[in-house]
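== Sequence and structure of one protein ==
=== Format: two labelled lines per protein ===
==== Data for this protein ====
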Amino acid sequence: MTIFFDDRDYRYFIQLLRTLVEKFDVECWNYCAMPNHYHATLRPRLPNISAAMHYLNGHYAQWWNARHRSVGHVFQGRFKAQIVQRDGYALALSRYVALNPVRARLVRRPEQWRWSSYAAIIGQVSAPSFLAVDTTLGLFGDSQRTTLQKRFADFVLSRCDDEMVDDQIRSNNHVLGDPMFNASVRVPAAAQ
């Protein structure tokens, strides 16, 4: 189902995402709002991700239903949460999120999609205040910002055929990482 019909829908959703970051003390590494879904890499500093997502999805659904004179569910089900290994897998997730509109054939290049953080992360547009650009770029080492932005852009645009990692991202797995990382993470019973 289409959940973003026009710029106003996208803008309101991103405004709610900003509020979520501030209100729930969550770090937003990246995001991409698509016509029928969204992706956001969020790192909570407190054990409150469920409350934060309830806020985001609930407020957007109420607003959307009122605006579009509709009733019922806007989102299909509970949000998908994965614990992601920082080394390697967080990079793959960043690429996956950035390339979502390209895979959907909405644009040819990820920086062309207005409702994604990609162009802000690579420095083509001003970053919204709630976006943790330096955290995302920090995945590419310790260097000058412009160097890290180029590394990030090169990584996203490189021809990577890591279907195994993409399949893990699309899966219902609660943990995204190598076997040792997966074994080391204890997923709360409520998430299973």
